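Input protein
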Amino acid sequence: MKNHLKRNWKIVLLHHTHLDIGYTHTQEEVLKIQFQHLETAMDLIDKHKHKPDHCRFRWNPEILWAIEEWVKQASPSEKERFVRLVQEGYIGLDGLYANVLTGLCRPEELMESFQIKTQMEHLTKTPIESAMITDIPGLNWGLVTALAENNIHYLSSGPNRSDRIGYFLKEWGDKPFYWRSPSNQEKVLVFIHGKGYSWFHSGMYAKKNLSRKLNPRRLSRYLKKLEEQNYPYDTIIIRYNIGADNGPPDPLLSNIVVSWNQKYPHMKLEISTTAKALADFSRKNSNLIPEFSGDLTPYWEDGAASTARETAIAREAGERLTQATILSAMMAQDDFQDRILTTWKKTYLFNEHTWGAHNSISSPDHPFVQSQWEWKKQKALNANKDAFHLLEDISHCKLIYPPSYIEKLNFFEKKIDCTEISVVNTHNWPITQVIKINTPYNCISDEQRNFLKTQRLSDGKLAFIATDIPGFGKKNYFLSNIETKDQREKGLISDQFTLKNEFIEVSIDEKWGTVKNISYKGEELIMKTDTKHFNGFIFAKSKWGTQLVRDSSKNVKIEIIDNGPIISSIKITSSAFRTNMISSIISIESISAKIYISNQINRPISRKKEGIYFEFPLSIKNGRVKYDTIFGSAVVDKDQLLGANRNFISATRWIDISNQNYGVSCALLDAPLFKSGILTHDPIRFGPPKLCGWLRKTEYNGIFYSYIMNNYWMTNYKADQPGNTLFRYVFNPHQKFNESVTTRFALEEGQPLLVFNNTQNISKNRFPLVISSKNIIITNVKFDKKFIFYTVRVFNASNSILNCKITVNTDSIAEIIGQNKQNRLTKDILQLEPLEIISLKMRGEIKLTEFNP
């Protein structure tokens, strides 16, 4: 073959399986297949060790899920062999537990998943410094923070080459870069492989000649194109994955490389592991590699809207697990860490990108499809159940508030008959919230035996205000039926279907059953329009057009269900296109300007292509749209990198629309996806991004849409989702936007105060860390009983540099954990950059006090 290349090339092959947990086979079958792949790879490694180093067989298992399971059942000799091959650099372990949809993860879920990485490092006594993520186009910006905090320096991204990938591969394929975190203090080298991961696939059922696509003509054409594009490096890193998803090791690879390098010295092949390949590349080219900062908003999270109910259940499980971890530390316990990690794995496996079988849309009733979805669904349901049980087991009490998503959906909540309750705050700042408990008693008094204002709600619960529950602390309350002075007071409904307190006024449109007006500090917050309605239900018919049906005004019924001094609520029921029932409850409370919206919809079985939204038109002049990422935030367009998804965005917890003076934040409790600007059709599956309908830019026009349901995908995801599903939103009007206030608001709604049925079992000990700062958020705390120390994750949630004085007692210790962060602590001053995270190891009583130097 004639050499048409202008330079000498090194082609580095990362030989791996793409581990789909399902899709090609059932999840149980996949595990057996991956066990066999690992054992075959170890045999091939031993077989080819006599060859030159760059030709020796190496294997990248891609993720740790199957490796962890294999280790559990391996014999001592098998484990010893595996460890030796890892230590010798023939098996390259990468740090991700699974190929997860990062836009769906709770922040602590992503961080805690790296515990499996740490366990593997202890087993093999070998650091894991790289990660592979495969098939998935786009990544949540906070992944950089999570990787860097867990000492991972390199990320290999092998996306799908064509299916719903937008501009991701077009903009970033074979353009390695250092990706800066939201705080700008961490960076990771990212290589998004231009040929994705499947360039060498032969097909799901192919069995023979699986190496045939690794041929010199094909690679020579590819290298020639790179030269024409002025690719600035003489090394290219390529994913080598044969057969199909869950493909095997290639027994011919080492021999192919030996022969190839003898024939084609101008384009030599090398077999490598992810960490070695990217470390070598970084070492050689660090001065040429550019840096970028911004969100690479992912593309495949919309598939989760095909299972909206289970997605909401998994989100709630993640929030309760975070609270369980902190509660365990508050009570100086470490007995539950294994159970907590096991439950985190369930939420993570639910958010793993393989939702179901390859024929989930074409044959949705096939047993192969049904069994895979059942496995997936149970991850969400069991994680949720386990998270609530953990809260009870850690506290040795019954949890009586908050109710779970499943309980709210089924209108079933536990009744209590106790006379003492503890209200516990798992955040590091004081919180005041309205609590609703299912009790026959009508009076509540505080620890000083002062009777509190209460309100009996229409569903039989008793509401009261828990005031200033201290950070990482609790208050006790006492229930009784003692006769007290008549507490009846004027409710918060000022006239027919208008909710009003001293902060906010909300009125309902009687024709449409939507919100007509929101008045806040003299500003009207809702856009005046005849066609768009705040909390309006929108049904998008078919996949390719924009046939929007706004007909939720059918059979509208409005009723006042609560009108008291603490809570007032209006319920609206209606029906809509291909929807049996919509039930919305709009509520306000006496203590704040927050507006609570709870939308429950009941769907029939519907397999025609469709998308469903709730729309929220706002009148905020010159407003900008901001959303939170994991450990950060981004302004739509401005903070999104080229190639990021602009058709829909997955927020972590909140979205905010503000101008310089005022705005509205919204906590998205159940449905993370939103759209900003014009509501466009769902993009075409394959083809040039512009022709498919992928957007280069989003211009906010005053409306954002909560994207709640679809069945647009042609594979993997669900074809229908009948039954009841709940979507909750909390709107918080505010004056000038404050990032840390908004982050706290969303955390308080997602992780509310916990109420237990016993005052004795909850620890009375004062938590040893005291925070005097409105900007510091402790996102996680763990206690080590053996060494008597706490590990604390500290997050500067503000957009400003934060300086804190550390005050310690004589026997107290505070030190920073993690690489390259020790300079943040000088003498007794801790400095945090905006949106920066650090981990502290502490013993004894410690106080952090913010100050302006």
